[in-house]
Design goal:
With 111 residues, the protein is an alpha+beta fold. It has one domain: 3-Layer(aba) Sandwich (Glutaredoxin), CATH 3.40.30.10. 53% of the residues lie in helices and 19% in strands. It contains five helices and six strands. The strands form two sheets. The chain has a four-stranded mixed beta sheet with strand order 4-1-5-6, sandwiched between helices. Strands 2-3 form a two-stranded antiparallel sheet. β5 and β6 form a beta hairpin.
């Protein structure tokens, strides 16, 4: 089995927008995860989620990988963006949507 850091890296590289969260997009298991999903749903963009509650190794590993202590964690185009508060702030200032659209456009051009 691959090292947890390798599994995390592979998941991040395989998805333009990825949220490590408690629960999943259809059933968030904490308020911060729910708020983060709500923001991305409001943008109407494709994104993936990984439920850290389903895998304790990933739950701890993602914190080491990003050097960020809390969940959820959002990655866009392979880059760690932050947690719920940062994503909410970027959304409210209008910075998140262009960042997301650029990542998706780049992903589409790679084909």
């Amino acid at each position: 089995m691959a090292d947890v850091s390798e599994r995390i890296k592979s998941a991040i590289e395989s998805n333009r927008i990825l949220i490590f969260m408690k629960g999943n997009r259809n059933f968030p298991m904490c308020g911060f995860s729910a708020a983060t999903v709500e923001i991305f749903d409001s943008l109407g963009v494709p994104y993936e989620t990984i439920d850290v509650l389903a895998d304790q190794e990933v739950r701890e590993g993602i914190k080491r990988y990003s050097n960020w202590p809390t969940i959820p964690q959002v990655f866009i185009n392979g880059k760690f963006i932050g947690g719920c508060d940062i994503v909410r702030e970027l959304y409210e200032t209008g910075e998140l949507e262009p960042m997301v659209r650029a990542a998706l456009a780049e992903g589409a051009s790679r084909g």
